[in-house]
Design brief:
199 residues; alpha+beta; Arc Repressor Mutant, subunit A; Umud Fragment, subunit A; 2 domains; ten-stranded mixed β-sheet; two-stranded antiparallel sheet; elongated
Amino acid sequence: MEKLTNRQREVLAAVRELTGRHGFPPTVRELAEFLEIGPRAAFEHLAALVRKGYLEKEDGRPRALAVAGYAPALELPVVGRVAAGPPITAIEEAEETMAVDRSLGAAQGDFLLRVKGDSMDGEHIVDGDMVIVRPQPVAENGAVVVALVGDEATVKRMYVRGDRVILRAANPAYADLVLGEDEDVAVIGRVVGVIRRYK
């Protein structure tokens, strides 16, 4: 693909953002309003992006614009459950998949876990929620992670203090889980988003 100008990169990013936000691509007028430029300028930038292969367009439809190779939603596996309370055994096999919008922070390779318990309600992660987890073996101090303690998984805010790992709840009813270097603890991934289904 041909290289983009700085302005064309901004337009492409705006198309991605608006598509992720609304679930469908913007019209030329919507894009122009978002970028605070004229419709003609927006049209010309879009035409250049189509010509360079970054966008795909189907003639005759007002919203037939799409980022090449980009989908606003991803099918992520629901691989089990995780405790927001005392650790519980995680179910590792995928039970199902679920379409998750990229605007929620989802990326290819992420997975979902159902939350059981109320220890993270101060972080707005409550019983029945789904957390979007980005697999990674390490996380920065203070990150909300899914950690494996022995054979059990839990979601907590993680701190490393010397040779100790502290898994901290966001509910004062739960004490810190302090783990020494001789205890089996591993980071499964970092929580990057939360999905809540209202009944």
